[in-house]
Specification:
Chain A is mainly β. Chain A is 0% helix and 56% strand. In chain B, the strands form 2 sheets. In chain B, strands 2, 4, 5, 6, 9, 10 and 11 form a 7-stranded mixed beta sheet that branches. In chain B, strands 1-3-8-7 form a 4-stranded antiparallel beta sheet, with no helix packed on it. The chains are: A mainly beta (113), B mainly beta (109).
Chain lengths: 113, 109
């Protein structure tokens, strides 16, 4: 069984479109994260949720909106996609908080044309 | 602030040792190490907590100098499977990891 799964794995879309990425974890963790990894491999946190509550919201444009329907799921919706949004987006989860091991999903490679 | 890793890249022959360093300008509560292979997700290696506690894989060793806000990852008798990009992530009280720029490790036979 996959611990942290993301869909889709690849996403190619036009500028201006709206898209969503879904994430699910079956580890029973209560904290989930979204990270963005750019073309230079820089890995940066975007959001974190603890038990469906938003804990961290980095300086991310309002076009990005996370939603956590329950503690096993964390989705990311992106409005009005821009070229600079092209990156690999990783979902991750951990037990309790940041000082425990984070399990990363396989990533979603988003390409905006 | 983003921690600084050194070196940026290293090439070894199988069996050789390597040290990867991570330095922060902020006081730290913990340092985390992850390895990412090309096209894959980062995978946890180790956490070093303020006060000396460590959690991680038995075959990986690392150190954390709290006073200097520095950590080092020690890879001994390297194997081909050690190849990848190593990231340190630092946590300084804001409940989030800030990752360094990565160190690319290549192990040749």
């Amino acid at each position: 069984d996959t611990a942290v799964s993301q869909t889709p794995k690849y996403l190619v879309t036009q500028m201006g479109n709206d898209k969503s990425i879904k994430c699910e974890q079956n580890l029973g963790h209560d904290t989930m994260y979204w990270y963005k990894q750019d073309s230079k491999k820089f890995l940066k946190i975007m959001f974190s949720y603890n038990n469906k509550e938003l804990i961290i919201n980095e300086t991310v444009p309002n076009r990005f909106s996370p939603k956590s329907p329950d503690k096993a799921h964390l989705n990311l919706h992106i409005n009005s996609l821009e070229l600079g949004d092209s990156a690999v987006y990783f979902c991750a989860s951990s037990q309790l908080a940041y000082y425990n091991e984070q399990f990363f999903g396989p990533g979603t490679r988003l390409t905006v044309l | 602030q983003q921690p600084v890793q050194s070196p940026q890249a290293v090439i070894l022959r199988e069996g050789e040792d390597a040290v990867i360093n991570c330095s922060s300008s902020k006081a730290l509560y913990s340092v985390h190490w992850y390895r990412q292979k090309h096209g894959e997700a980062p995978v946890f290696l180790m956490i070093l907590l303020k006060g000396g506690e460590q959690k991680g894989h038995e075959k990986i060793s690392a150190s954390f100098n709290e006073k200097k806000q520095q950590s080092s990852l020690y890879l001994t008798a390297s194997q081909l499977s050690y190849s990848g990009t190593y990231f340190c992530g630092t946590e300084g009280g804001a409940q989030k990891l800030v990752f360094g720029q990565g160190t690319r490790l290549t192990i040749n036979p």
